[in-house]
């Protein structure tokens, strides 16, 4: 990972996201990009007024303060700030897409005295549209815990192993353990066999990378998402890495209800990985 893009709106939650990004940069020396987006509504309301200039001046000043704070905490990392204009999710995703080996870090809520930029739908839109991994943090997530255990749920889907690359990268950067959890749903011998094959592949990837790991399975006769979230709480992991579930709607790809449910209810930070095969199919 070479570039970390942080969605900024100056709320406490985006500040927490920035702190997470700094912690990652301290480990891998990735370049930090603090990105603030000026919306069309703001342009309509303020573009012709002196107050708009004052407002943008205040934004630039605040960004500069946050950049200096990042530099103080991660002196060996490069830190820049950028002001974009347009739809927040679109601009953030486009900015990250043109950077090599990038990741987006953002919060799911961002109500502040400046503007609501990453509230609700905008966070989900970013997850929907991104072509790079997204680290998402709910506003009530603790930010002062060391990253020691990373949960990677494994299912029967073809793309489930795609998330192993970034999980292993985090594990190597932080010296963390990867917790492989095979989710058996529905519970039958055929599904168990497929899960065991997937788990063996995932374990082999950890061994090759010389990363600590353990393997567990979870029998789920009913709804798998509540069971997964309950297991994550009991395991007390610090990070969960999941694939973005794709749902097709004519020419668009939308985040599935399972992904949305996990984002809304996860007790720990999430890394959401887009399906690279989907981009190949859409070309």
CATH class of the largest domain: Alpha Beta
What portion of residues belong to β-strands?
Answer: 15-25%
Helix and strand pattern: EHEHHEHEHEEHEHEHEEEHEH
Rg calculated over all Cα atoms:
19 Å
Q: What is the overall shape?
A: globular
Overall pLDDT confidence: 85
Write the layout of secondary structure elements.
Layout: E1 3-7, H1 12-28, E2 31-38, H2 40-46, H3 50-73, E3 79-85, H4 88-97, E4 102-107, H5 121-129, E5 134-137, E6 149-154, H6 164-174, E7 177-184, H7 189-208, E8 213-219, H8 224-235, E9 239-243, E10 246-249, E11 252-255, H9 257-265, E12 270-273, H10 276-282
Parallel strand pairs: 1-2, 1-4, 2-3, 4-5, 6-7, 6-9, 7-8, 9-12
Antiparallel strand pairs: 5-12, 10-11
Helix pairs in contact: 2-3, 4-5
Task: Characterise the protein shown here.
The protein has 2 domains: 3-137, HUPs (Rossmann fold); 149-282, HUPs (Rossmann fold, 3-Layer(aba) Sandwich). Helix content is 45%, strand content 24%. The protein is built from 10 helices and 12 strands.
Brief descriptors of the model:
Rossmann fold, 10 helices, disordered C terminus, alpha/beta, two-stranded antiparallel sheet, 12 strands, single chain, ten-stranded mixed β-sheet, 283 residues, 24% strand
Summarize the model shown.
The protein is an alpha/beta fold.
